[in-house]
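fyi for ur records
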Amino acid sequence: MSQISFDDFMAVDIRVGQITRAEPFPEARKPAFKLWVDFGEAIGERKSSAQITSHYTPEKLIGKRVVGVVNFPPRQIGPVMSEVLVLGVPDEAGEVVLLTPDKDVPLGGRMF
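which gave:
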């Protein structure tokens, strides 16, 4: 793996958001949900798509704090324009587990 500089790292804007809405995304090629994530007043609400159906249901996602990259350009995923990359890591079976702060932190807080 190649090394990056601290400036390279700081160019990636990773913020804390809260899922306000989650719906099934039947048009996706792989099972996924459509998510709406509130990143606070300065950034606002952003849409995303996430392949997280193994560990989560739409009902359990509402109110969950997550971290996401907010400065990637929007990307069309089927009929959804994804505006944020919600971050997760694979479990032993390769299924995505969301990255979440372990304390209550303000929406829009930047990771550094």
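The first strand starts at residue 14 and ends at 24. thats all i got for now
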